[in-house]
Input
Amino acid sequence: MATPHRPVSRIDIARRGLRLVDCVARTVEHEPGTTVGPRAQTEIQMLLIHAGAMSVTIDRRDPYPVPAGQMCLLLPGHDEVISFGEADTTRQTLVRGTPVDLSDDMRTWLESLRPTRRLSAALTYISREAVVSEQTRLTAHGALVDALATALLWRFVAEFENYPAALPQPIEAARLYIHDNLGSDIDLADIAGSAHVTGPYLIRLFREHMGTTPIKYLWDRRITLGVELLTSSGLSVTRVAERAGFASSFHFARKIKQATGQTPTQLRSSAWSGTR
Output
């Protein structure tokens, strides 16, 4: 697939209603040297490779590799063969669904994309949420998994549109670590260690590419999680503070007041009464 010639924003807005339905999200392991196919692809499939490797052959063209740490997009209307690496077991997250409102323009645009992309924190997080929703059966009769699968596809598209501004790998690794440890007692050394860089170097990267610092980013995410838990759960303020990584409910209340202009109790009350 070639580099896209125009951004998706230039496709008529009415034709950008693409969504996925009847979706499935799960983790899958493939033994070394095994093969899937040849098969006719009838869905949109997104494969996130966490360990091992695979190669994909589309319509008998030259195969392309998909190593660990990348995501692969498979589109309907093609014959494909997937071969898994000989050395190690390949562990992947599979998210697939049937496309609805896939216009000719949108299909052509998707076909123009390079079919692989380095995994970002956002791609990993969205796919993980889809898998957990299925595992815990919190699917809202499938609607939640469909929404997350659709979000994963559009995130893939959005990252390609902003490819020149793609974040360096240490930032992505640090962000993923932060998202996974919001409720834990972590500091700059922990975050930098997860990205295999020094603290000062990670600070420079965050300031240059995100206009913030790793610790400021951590606290912003904690506040966002706290607001979400306050407005969408019945947990006590103290429990919300703990879940969001705050040392005390007093510290949590102060940060929420600074961010929203309301105390935690006021924020919850206004959200639940519909006056927020």
Summary: The radius of gyration is 21 Å.
